[in-house]
Design brief:
42% of the residues lie in helices and 28% in strands. By secondary structure, it is an alpha+beta fold. The chain has a single domain, classed as 3-Layer(aba) Sandwich (Rossmann fold), CATH 3.40.50.150.
Length: 130
C-alpha cells in the first residue's frame, strides 16, 4: 500500500512557481527546476505491472489541506518543498520570488485569510506476483 502525490498534485502551487519563474528569472528553463514528480494512476500502475505487481486498487483523491499561520503557512510550504525552483538565487531575490508566488496563489488558495494546499493523492494497493 502506498499514498503519494498524483498528477496535478499542488497544481496551483506549481503553476504559480512556473509563472513567476518565467517572468522573474530570464535565461533559465523553469520546468527543469520542478522538484516534484507526480504520476497519473495509469502511469504508476503501469510501472508497477512492469515490475511484476498486480494492482487491484488505485484511486486518486483531491484533498485540500488547511495551512496554519495564514500567508506565512503558504510561504513556509513553498520554502520547505520548492527549494529547487530557486536554487542559485541570492537570498534577496529568492525571498522576492517566494513572496510573489504566494501573492499569485492568493485568489485561488486563500479564502477569508485561510490558506490551503491543493493536494491530489494517489492511493494504490499492489501485490507482487509469485
Amino acid at each position: 500500500m502506498a499514498e503519494f502525490g498524483g498528477k496535478r498534485n499542488v497544481g496551483a502551487i506549481v503553476g504559480a512557481h512556473l509563472s513567476v519563474a518565467l517572468s522573474e528569472i530570464s535565461g533559465q528553463e523553469p520546468e527543469a527546476h520542478n522538484p516534484w514528480y507526480c504520476p497519473s494512476i495509469d502511469e504508476y500502475a503501469g510501472l508497477l505491472k512492469q515490475h511484476g505487481f498486480d494492482v487491484p486498487e488505485a484511486v486518486v483523491e483531491p484533498r485540500t489541506r488547511p495551512l496554519e499561520g495564514g500567508r506565512r503557512g503558504m510561504v513556509g510550504l513553498i520554502e520547505r518543498f520548492a527549494g529547487e525552483f530557486w536554487s542559485g538565487l541570492s537570498d534577496h531575490v529568492r525571498s522576492h520570488v517566494i513572496n510573489e508566488v504566494a501573492e499569485r496563489l492568493r485568489p485561488t488558495l486563500c479564502r477569508d485569510g485561510n490558506w490551503i494546499a491543493d493536494y491530489r493523492r494517489i492511493r494504490v494497493v499492489a501485490v507482487k506476483n509469485s
